[in-house]
Structure formats: C-alpha cells, structure tokens
Amino acid sequence: MRYLLMIAGSEAPTEEQLAIGCGGWSEDLVERGILVGGGGLHPPATATTVRMRDGDVLLSDGPFAETKDQIGGYAVLECADLDEAVEHASRHPAAAYGTIEVRPLLG
C-alpha cells in the first residue's frame, strides 16, 4: 500500500536543519524500493489557493489553512502496512523538529 508523508513544521528550518536535509533517509529508501516519490515545497507565502464558489474562481495568495504548521515537503512510500510507514516516518530528520502526517493513498 502507498502512504503519503506530509512533512510540516511550525517555523522555517534552521540553516543546520537545511544542511542536513533528509540526512540519507531518502537515498536509503530509494535503494530499498520503498520511496516512490516526493519533494520539497517552496514557502507557504508562494502558494496560490483556488476555490470555486457559485461558478466563480476565487484565488488568494498564500496558504488556505490558518495554522502555524505548514507543509514543507512530502514523500510517497510503498509499505506493507501503516506500522512500516510510521517506522520510516519516525526516522526522517524532520520528525525531530516538526511533524510528519502519514496517510494511506486511495486506490
């Protein structure tokens, strides 16, 4: 089953955290055939939110969610079950300073 890991933080990563990046986490999972996709995102201020209301397209700059935690990256894993996905998520360096939401993908 495939799982989406949404990597979030309440603030911008420090220079040290940026330098560490994934710290070999992604390379290991790619070699093992577990990581099937992913990437980092530009800051939330660069987002454009799209909504349709009464046939009109409504655009707004920035993220739609009014929350302190913002998604900074994502990964798609192929795992046997949720326990395996959580195990891999817990080893991601960002889990030490942010949060990683793990969700099964439909289909």
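Next protein, fold it too.
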Amino acid sequence: MKTCLECSAKIFGREDKKFCSDSCRNAYNNKINKDSTNFMRNINNKLRKNYRILAELNVDGKSKASRDKMLNKGFDFEFFTNILQTKTGNTYYFLYDQGYRSLDNDYFMLVKKEI
C-alpha cells in the first residue's frame, strides 16, 4: 500500500498516485518550491518587480523610458538576471526576456527578446 508524500495517509486509486488529495499535493509542492531564506525571497521579489515594470513600460517590444520614470515606479537598477554585450559594444541588462540599455540624457532603450 502506498502512502501520501505529504501526510503519510494511505492512498487509494490509481497506481501512480502520490498524494491522497489536492490539498496535500499543493502543500507538498509549496514546501518544495518555497524560497529557503528571506534573503532569497527578497531578491526574487525585486526581480519580479523589475520585470513587471519593464513589461509595463515596454508593451510593444521596443521602447524608450527615462530613468526618473523607471525609478518612480520602483525599479532597482542593481537587480537583473543577465548581461548581454553586443558586438557593437552596447551592454544590455536583462530580467529574463525583458531588457534595457543606457542611452544619452538618462534615457533607456527597453527591448524584449523573442523566445
């Protein structure tokens, strides 16, 4: 007899079933996928917020925004997921598929990578 991975109750039903109920399945997956420390949780929250701001400002896939506008929405320029250096010497900072690069006069070009 198999037992539930979350509460160890006996499982009835399909042979490949791992949980006794949807609530046990959700509780188990939430426990496995939760951020292990406050530090990680805070960084992930900042990355998510930055991503939402870029997506909101860059609806068309390529646009321009001022530093002030980004900062007023709460953008934090210290948090990004990767950097792309182009052959022409431009540096793009990305949050997953949303990116930006510095232009003149405190403006940024916002771009979206096609995945």
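About the second fold: The chain is about 35% helix and 20% strand.
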